[in-house]
Design a protein that fits this description.
2 copies of one chain form a homodimer. By secondary structure, chain A is an alpha/beta fold. Chain A is about 40% helix and about 25% strand. Chain A has 2 domains: about 160 residues, NAD(P)-binding Rossmann-like Domain (Rossmann fold, 3-Layer(aba) Sandwich); about 160 residues, Dihydrodipicolinate Reductase, domain 2, CATH 3.30.360. Chain A has 12 helices and 12 strands. In chain A, strands 3-2-1-4-5-6 form a 6-stranded parallel sheet, sandwiched between helices. The first copy, chain A, is globular, with a radius of gyration of 20 Å. Chains A and B meet through helix 1, helix 2, strand 12 and helix 12 of A and helix 1, helix 2, strand 12 and helix 12 of B.
Chain lengths: ~325, ~325
């Protein structure tokens, strides 16, 4: 059995730093569980100011990805650079060199997941992306293991914390959409350009990835029936309340007449549906299996360390296989 | 790769039948995912009236466990007979013959988990028991995979549907304990002798098993600080309501001064804690990791088919390893 598994992190931003923290601080725990040491050998980062991060040895940093691709000791590449084109290229290059890949990049994965899976398979590599959907909540793992004995009847999830934060503030504090958005931006729950979150593009990417695992079918993001929350008014919120409902931006998947339909849209959720209890920046998702019935998962969908924990969980699962030399026969996370 | 994995079910009661249904009806789906056919080759059952169950070939039934133990083609034994002594002996015998074991029997496992794990390890076998805690909710799998990169700070769960059903009825319909219990019995949510459920013995077994996975430490059931719900009065419920709380029977685990403490007791849960939203016979559990933060899981904690789905999930995970011949290096579910 291999006693050390080496990791490279691409991009040392918020989630990259969270991932490093989890892998470094809980290294003994992870080693105890999987029987091998997981070591971050390289961090690829072009912003040299980050080379002075306290607690991270300066010599692990490099601006040059070829230092990773050409290093046969690196087993797992953790892609955290964001964006679609460059990130996708980097992931494919890693897989082509026989390196396993972990990513939290829903945008790149939602577009290129089939190509990624093909390339992973052709090279005997594992590809995991728990952190791309619902941050710390292990919903992808559940779908690809325990729940995979079910035909999935439907998925209904609140998978975008920004939108949910805004809707919660509108509802609980009677704010207009614009005011709630500004508050979310001031509190770090919304970006300066909030389009991707509030118009449902982010949720659309996530439901594409969830459906790929749950149904083994690929629906491209542009085919998701998508409506955002920017048109929601205090009057809508009030009308919902009168029906004893709350408005939530729901990412959904279900079969209709044999066809898999994906949607992202504001829906009226009855107050006694557990999805209605998801407040502020949290995420929650109900998966209905033909045998398990409804299973609901809830937790933090974002944040440096929670998301880093999801990445580290994937890294540890792959490292356990690498250490045992079972990675070539591991079951693919996604079936598309 | 092995193309067929054979299973024996011990005990064809409620959960045994649910397990058979899931494995039979979703056999194609499971085969597609793991690349091998999972077949129920034998059902050990002494009640011969059950041999006439529609949809189950009569020839799979036998009253004699040695037909399983002496059959080298049987890879996985699913123990569903209940009770402690005989069930434990049957599981150990299976492991000693090199057969993997899946069980939903929290009572037997909570007492004998260390011996079971030792025996499994010594014989290169896997032992899984997702269905023993929270039925269909894949919480054991999450703790032993994705969440295992966390030091677990605490577990707080509603893991006994009977007690929660009674507490919900007392709260929502203003019933006295005795009346609510009788209603639960009439509706099939409580047994004629409800002691195990309402006095917290069942929850105690479950928190022992959760803690064994989450903390890698064994605390015997008799050391769980345990109080049931039979002393709860309508006045208690009303006093909770005045504090904007609900009473829930909480199975908890946490470290205090370095020592792992397990408890089962009625607690006041603030209405805005998501645990308070768990109503009727449902289960819900919050797991707090040092990195992931709070993750909450919710679903049906009992029932023939949902529980059978959890058993089938474990069977499929083991069968995937058996088919690939990786079972001997698989990581043990529990670390005690």
């Amino acid at each position: 059995m291999k006693k050390e598994v080496n990791v490279a992190i691409l991009g040392f931003g918020v989630v990259g730093q969270g991932t490093y923290k989890v892998l470094a601080e809980n290294a003994d725990l992870i080693e105890k569980r999987i029987g091998a040491r997981v070591k971050v050998k390289r961090i690829v980062e072009i912003n040299t100011a980050r080379y002075d991060t306290p607690g991270v040895p300066r010599e692990v940093f490099t601006p040059d990805y070829s230092d990773v691709l050409n290093d046969p000791d690196i087993d797992i590449v953790v892609e955290m650079i964001g964006g679609v084109e460059l990130a996708s290229r980097f992931m494919l290059q890693a897989l082509e060199r026989g390196k396993h890949v972990v990513s939290s990049n829903k945008a790149a994965l939602a577009v290129n997941i089939r190509k990624m899976n093909e390339t992973a398979k052709a090279n005997g590599c594992m590809l995991r992306y728990e952190a791309s959907v619902c941050g710390a909540i292990p919903v992808m793992n559940a779908l690809s293991t325990s729940l995979s004995v079910n035909n999935i009847k439907s998925i209904r999830g609140i998978v975008n914390g920004t939108s949910n934060y805004i809707l919660t503030k509108m509802e609980e504090e009677g704010l207009a959409y614009d005011v709630a958005l500004r508050q979310a931006q001031e509190n770090g729950f919304a970006e300066q350009d909030p389009t991707g979150d509030v118009e449902g593009f982010d949720s659309a990417n996530k439901i594409v990835l969830l459906a790929a695992i749950a149904y083994g079918e690929y629906v491209p993001p542009e085919e998701v029936d998508r409506t955002g929350i920017s048109g929601i008014t205090p009057a809508d919120i009030e009308a919902a309340r009168e029906k004893n409902c709350r408005i939530r931006l729901i990412a959904g998947a279900r079969r209709e007449d044999g066809k898999l339909r994906l949607s992202v849209k504001p829906e009226l959720i009855p107050c006694d549906d557990i999805l209605a209890s998801v407040r502020n920046e949290f995420n929650g998702i109900t998966i209905t299996g033909d045998m398990s019935g409804d299973i609901f998962f809830y937790g933090r969908g974002a944040g440096s360390v929670p998301t880093g924990a999801a990445v580290a969980g994937d890294v540890a699962e792959i490292a356990a296989c690498v250490a045992r030399d079972t990675h070539r026969v591991a079951i693919a996370t996604s079936r598309v």
